[in-house]
């Protein structure tokens, strides 16, 4: 029962913090986070701690199956490129004397444009 009480208390706290964060993010244009925090009697460090905890809680509840995935079509003539290395941090491909490094942060739109340009390099 103690763990249930702790869980409920944490969820309640997170809801309060999320409400507080929404209010801070909709503050008037000329007021900084630090000023807003001072007006609401919390430290900026505490605000950012609460923001981090709310974000973590949100990420814990996201179903990664529901996140849309993009597929970037690769022209057949580019597939013969030289695969340099694959690691957890990314992929490196050499095509027509152009070396391309792709990471999880690489947007599909950027990758598509770069592949199209690389196909034209002689």
What would your notes on this structure say?
- The chain is an alpha+beta fold and 122 residues long.
- The protein folds into two domains: 2-66; 76-120, no CATH class.
- 50% of the residues lie in helices and 14% in strands.
- It has four helices and three strands.
- It has helices at 2-25, 33-39, 44-60, 108-120; strands at 82-87, 90-95, 98-102.
- Strands 1-2-3 form a three-stranded antiparallel β-sheet, covered by helices on one side.
- A hairpin with a 2-residue loop joins strand 2 and strand 3 (98-102).
- It is elongated.
- The termini are far apart.
- The model has no long low-confidence stretch (mean pLDDT 79).
Write a compact overview of the structure shown.
With 122 residues, this protein is an alpha+beta fold.
Number of helices: 4
Binned, the helix content reads: 40-55%
How do the strands line up in the largest sheet?
1-2-3
Number of strands: 3
Q: Any low-confidence stretches, pLDDT <50, length ≥5?
A: none
Rounded mean pLDDT score: 79
Strand content: 5-15%
